[in-house]
Amino acid sequence: MNYKTDIGYRKEILTKLLNNLTIHESEIIQALYDDFKKPAFEAVITETSYVISELKDTIKNIHKWAKPKKVFPSILNFPSKDYIYKDPYGKVLIIAPWNYPYQLALCPLISAVAAGNQVVLKPSELTPNTSAIIAKIIEKTFHINHVEVILGGVETSQKLLSQRWDYIFFTGSVAVGKIVAKAAAENLTPVTLELGGKNPCIVDETANLKLAAKRIVWGKFINAGQTCIAPDYILVQKDMKNKFVDYLKEEITLAYGTNPEVSPDFARIINEKNFSRLVKMIEADKVIFGGQTEITNCYIAPTLIEESNLDSLIMEDEIFGPLLPILTYQSEADINAIISKYEKPLSLYVFTENKSFAEKTIQTYSFGGGCINDTLIHFSNKKLPFGGVGHSGIGAYHGSLSFDTFSHKKGIVKKANWLDLPMRYAPYKGKLNTIKKLLKWL
Ligand code: NAD
């Protein structure tokens, strides 16, 4: 079977994948738990069910997405019929991160296969259990020449990057994103870079503070804060701060109890390296809630930090852990000064009942995507493009856009032979004035 040209075969193999992913769902959930104690509930809503839903949607729509799209022809080419053909790029390399190690490996893989490509996937070395089960399922589903999983760390990744690919899809840090972009440039390989950033979360004086606190606590501490689109820091209107902090404390306790270390619903930091990186950011005198750490199980409590210094370590880079700095503002100029200090983030959130402030905020700043009065949930709508801008990434995917990401769009004119207007052909003598008039009229 030819996966490049046979859409029926692509649908068939994706259905086989759906079957295998479903059969192994409980093993996947267990692997995610073994890797960093990802709670089963979070594993289901953010990983397994998400992948299944993306896969079902792809299987349902593959014929529609793959079909050449007829577009209105240009009168200049009359008579013709014009189309956009979706052509597979060829050999695609996918490099995945550890934080949603299943979903962020499988979703691009599904779309790359749907679009007719050959795929090599390099999952993260930091989640060995999840990566092993991914390798097992892929091996069971695909011929090795069609889709292959290569396990390994930085060295393996670099070796793969030194080869020639027709498309590279990378999800990970900004620093490694630059390495990938450089490697891709060698062969002018097109890339999608899904990176990170410092995501602001604004809470103004009109916001429903209690609900805002609940939704922010959920979005920040799910996956123990190791989410690329998690709110990185809070910007709360100065007069609201104390009340808002009280609500945050209340919501953290409601979600994870008085000792989150024993909560079955709170994940761990991925490894000691990241644990130490995060611990260095905690300045004891600024902690207003939480702050407990335990290296033996890479535990860091959900922690609120009162911050006013943009030069502090925690405000330097993306936090990527359960530490939430709270900054205050008095005017929109203060907000602007803080947000503008950083590269364009992957997400921005604004909590307000003031519609014009919300609209102004989302239109003023450049960022990947976001929400008004919630966090993270823009990720879940397949109709919305997901991706960054500037340092937070290049390109976007999800739903039909993922299929397009892995397809070259080929413009084709199908010209008819029953008429051949002589105007464009040389010799041009005597035709210039007529063509000028014609082009003006068009
Ligand atoms: P990472 O960049 O360290 O690693 C990602 C992948 O790149 C891994 O497979 C790893 O093996 C490989 N890699 C690491 N160093 C490399 C090097 N020097 N050369 C070549 N390959 C290398 O990222 P991570 O720690 O796995 O994930 C966390 C980061 O990913 C955060 O910055 C987060 O914001 C970002 N992220 C972004 C998204 C998104 O959708 N935009 C999603 C999840 C995570």
Task: Give a description of the structure.
This protein has 14 helices and 18 strands. The chain is an alpha/beta fold and 442 residues long. It folds into two domains: 209 residues, 3-Layer(aba) Sandwich (Aldehyde Dehydrogenase, Chain A, domain 1), CATH 3.40.605.10; 183 residues, Aldehyde Dehydrogenase, Chain A, domain 2 (3-Layer(aba) Sandwich). It has a seven-stranded mixed β-sheet, sandwiched between helices. Strands 5-4-3-6-7-17 form a six-stranded mixed β-sheet, with helices on both faces. The radius of gyration is 25 Å and the shape is globular. Nicotinamide-adenine-dinucleotide (NAD) binds next to helix 6 and helix 7.
For the terminal residues, how far apart are their CA atoms? 47 Å
User: How many alpha or pi helices?
Assistant: 14
> What's the Cα radius of gyration?
25 Å
Structural class by helix and strand composition: alpha/beta
Number of domains: 2
CATH class of the largest domain, named Alpha Beta
Mean pLDDT: 97
Number of β-strand runs = 18
Bound molecules: nicotinamide-adenine-dinucleotide
What's the helical proportion of residues?
25-40%
The CATH superfamily of the largest domain is Aldehyde Dehydrogenase, Chain A, domain 1
Overall morphology: globular
CATH architecture of the largest domain: 3-Layer(aba) Sandwich
- Which fold name is given in CATH as the topology of the largest domain? Aldehyde Dehydrogenase, Chain A, domain 1
Query: Which strand order spans the largest sheet, edge to edge or round the barrel?
Result: 10-13-14-9-8-15-16
The low-confidence runs, each spanning 5 or more residues with pLDDT under 50, are none
What does the main sheet amount to?
7 strands, mixed
